[in-house]
Model the fold of this input.
Amino acid sequence: MYRPLGMTVSRHIMDLQRMHPEATGDLSGLLNELIVAAKTISAEVNMAGLADVLGMSGKTNIQGEEVQKLDEFADNTIKRRMARCGYLCVMTSEEEEDIIPVREGYEGKYTLAFDPLDGSSNIDVNVSIGTIFSIHRRKSDDGKSPFGRRNTDIEEEWHPAEGKPGSALDILQKGCYQVAAGYIIYGSSTMLVFTTGEGVHGFTLDPSVGEFYLSHPEIRIPQRSKYFSVNEGNYSYWNDNMRRYINYLKEQDKENGRPYSSRYIGSLVADFHRNLITGGIFLYPKDNKDPAKPSGKLRLLYEAAPLAYIVEQAGGRAITGDGREIMEIEPEELHQRVPLIIGSRYDIDEAEAFLDGRK
Done:
């Protein structure tokens, strides 16, 4: 499908809807509501340092982390905007302990999981941060999703329990059941990147008119890269296979394009975005640094699964490094943590061979 540069995101969403005559328009409406929330957050982020939005809020979230003022603002902005949009049955946020109900009478057929402001520890030093989101259809009354890897907004004869409140069971679905996922990165410009299963597209916000315009159509991650992103400060906490792999990347081997260059920002959405555009591999593996986090640091529902969907749609891969594909993990709890190794396909294949002992 031809997508001219400068196309607005709303026009792009409508064109996607027209590709499916049976579409109800609910997913389109949901995405447009999220985009309005993103514009509001972007405006506030751009005021950091001028308005009283820097520093700690004095609260602690479910992860045991101190909440930044902008974290709290972003979380509240999305919750308030989406609670009455009419397209959701339930939400969940990285900042909240339990599920977030929508307003009574506004229940719809989708769910939303979101990290309101990823990389918030970098807010005060003006490093790129972002909002990550994941959308599923609510499950049927028997608790089973009949859609599998279907990713289009098509109305089937099956009808979920619309008009009824959603539950945690509606949220706890595999990444392969997502119907849309994306992120908004607030950096030198504000950019929206998302997929509905029809490829990955990037839109840049023109603040003079308050509109996102298509700037990166049909994003494809390079199959092999020359960059790796990992916190090498955790080197002594990794297992032997992980250490061997990182050492391998730093060896001199001009024929095979090594050594790789290290690029690590410490803001997941920023590291992922750079690698998506230029190629790269991001690693946050298991380690033995914190006994309270034996399964890794990153959250499955709010970070790993949505980014895995995006990278797969762009031609990459996402794995845990212990034999699992991120998209196939069955969530067991809202704040479940997983290791994450994500990026260019050939680099992920090679990392997997090291981590499972084949290389």
Q: What stands out?
A: The longest helix spans residues 26-45.
